[in-house]
Amino acid sequence: MENIAAMPGNSHTSVRSRTVAAELRRLREARGLSCAEVGEKLGASASKISRMETGHSGLQVEDVAALLGFYEVSAKKRTELLDLLKRGDQKGWWERQANLPTIWRAVIDFENKATRIQNFEAIVVPGLLQTDEYAAALLRGTNPTLSGAELDNLVATRMARHSLLIGHRAPQYVACIHESALRIPVGGSGVMVRQLRRLIDLGERANITIRVVPSGSGAHAGLRGSFMILEFAEEPALVYMENQATGLFLEEEADLAGYRLALHNILSEAVAPDATETVLAALITELTK
């Protein structure tokens, strides 16, 4: 591996390449190996293995294929990762429903590396803020074909994401939610009351800001759909969106600028941060009458 010329790292590494790099790290750690141990087996330095895993070094197909072979990755997964890498110089990334689990794994990884996350949701409570019963009711209602085991696994995965917001390296998180999302009775009134109380509790954390856009605000940029902006310490920011059939990453500067402007306009319609608890409490009162 060491004799293969490495492409220079740069700040424009695509989201696909970053995803492959993160998967290489996961594969190594799952086997309890150090970078030095892997490098020794494959004739590469520990620093090269580390650079590949952090995205600070360009990834070449031959190097990645050697690592995947060493880790005994299945043919299906190997093909998937190498295909992502081969398309790594393409900006953006979208996948149809059949491959959404791949992009979901990428979202979770990027959430864990982000220093700031800004999320606007028009019709549901943001995933990082959902209670387990709200998440279960939402997943069950939007996909009634899920088996009990599949539902439990999806809910557990979503709940595991919550630790991101309360850990010692928790990012700054801004959740802007349209009031309509808080009025849709997902799971019934009891579930919604507990969900709203959860939002009040989370809003007290120093790294979490929750804003509500009142239903009476009329037409605004948020009516064009939900989105999430993820910012990182050493990597370019990303925009992520998802609908019924497609997950989409955007990383072009023009796209990022457009979504930042949209978020600014949406936040201008939201109630002030110190008024959020009052809005949530009023909704709870309505549901408990």
What characteristics describe this protein?
289 residues; alpha/beta; 434 Repressor (Amino-terminal Domain); Endonuclease, Chain A; 2 domains; seven-stranded mixed sheet; 49% helix; 13% strand; disordered N terminus
Number of domains: 2
CATH architecture of the largest domain: 2-Layer Sandwich
Rg, Å, rounded:
21 Å
Question: Residue share in helices?
Answer: 40-55%
Q: Report the biggest beta sheet as strand number plus sense, adding barrel if it closes.
A: 7 strands, mixed
Describe the protein:
- By secondary structure, the chain is α/β, with parallel strands linked by helices.
- The chain has two domains: 72 residues, 434 Repressor (Amino-terminal Domain) (Orthogonal Bundle), CATH 1.10.260.40; 196 residues, 2-Layer Sandwich (Endonuclease, Chain A), CATH 3.30.870.
- Helices cover 49% and strands 13% of the residues.
- It is built from twelve helices and seven strands.
- It has a seven-stranded mixed beta sheet, sandwiched between helices.
- Strand 6 and strand 7 form a beta hairpin.
- Helix 1 packs across helix 3, helix 1 runs antiparallel to helix 5 and helix 7 crosses helix 8.
- The N terminus is likely disordered.
